[in-house]
Write a structure and sequence with these properties.
Largest sheet: 5 strands, antiparallel
Order of helices and strands: HEHEEHHHEEEEEEHE
Helix content: 25-40%
Shape: globular
Number of strands: 10
Distance between the termini: 30 Å
Radius of gyration: 18 Å
Number of helices: 6
């Protein structure tokens, strides 16, 4: 998972996450997660945000982000188009989550509660392969390519779609207003990517200049530190919600 091919080596990547003020006040965990992976066939990065009303949704966000990055990286070599790859990744992740939920449930009757409590999370992600760069989402958040920013959501009644709904056919009906399928936002040639940003919905408060800082790519903890400072600023700071960023940019040629 850490072996980088020529394409992946053209980019550098950084990420970080902090607990929002509201969650700190309520003594709740950070429900966001992020993960990326690269190999000779390309680069995959995702940000996941657990359902705010679920008691343990950080579990699904953490596990789901890793399952997604691993499954997507494994499928990059199949040379599928983005929509087909995302559909296959979704099925692979759902199969793993279904198995986990069954192991965690005392019986079939408690399966739905296990899923609702642990495995409802949004996904915002990017693929960079020889076929091109694609940004996609299932739920709310933030994506930006080359400074062109797209805010995702909010959704009606603050109820974004979750991949985990596919584990519960027909349940809950409130999720039916948004299909459980990925939205592809932009697709451009990989050579045109200079910067790419993924964020959870808490990141929409941030100024776009934040992620241009060279320091992000010199210390793996700088993104988290910078977000922490912003959250402690004047008048309570920004970042009322959990906030996660993954920042990708093309390396500057040396010499």
């Amino acid at each position: 998972m850490n072996t980088k091919g020529e394409l992946a080596q053209a980019f550098e990547i950084a990420g970080g996450s902090v607990t929002g003020r509201a969650h700190v006040a309520a003594r709740r965990n950070n429900q966001d997660a992020f993960c990326w992976a690269a190999d000779a066939d390309g680069l995959v990065a995702v940000v996941c945000d657990g359902c705010g009303s679920a008691p343990h949704s950080e579990v699904g966000a953490q596990i789901g982000s890793r399952l997604f990055a691993r499954a997507a990286t494994r499928l990059l070599r199949a040379n599928l188009d983005a929509a087909d790859l995302l559909e296959q990744v979704a099925q692979d992740v759902l199969a793993s989550l279904r198995g986990l939920a069954r192991e965690m449930s005392a019986d079939a009757a408690s399966f739905a509660r296990t899923v609702a409590d642990h495995f409802l999370f949004t996904i915002v992600g990017a693929l960079i392969t020889a076929r091109g760069a694609t940004t996609f989402s299932l739920g709310d958040g933030l994506v930006a390519i080359n400074g062109e920013r797209t805010e995702l959501g909010p959704f009606p009644n603050n109820e974004p779609p979750y991949l985990g709904y596919a584990l519960l056919p027909g349940v809950p009906d409130r999720g039916a207003s948004q299909p459980v399928s990925f939205t592809i936002h932009r697709q451009i040639p990989a050579r045109e990517v200079q910067s790419l940003v993924l964020g959870s919905d808490g990141a929409v408060e941030l100024d776009s200049q934040l992620w241009s800082d060279d320091l992000f790519f010199k210390n793996p903890d700088i993104v988290r530190r910078r977000l922490t400072v912003l959250g402690r600023g004047a008048r309570g700071g920004l970042l009322s919600d959990d906030t996660t960023l993954v920042v990708i940019r093309r390396k500057v040629a040396e010499g």
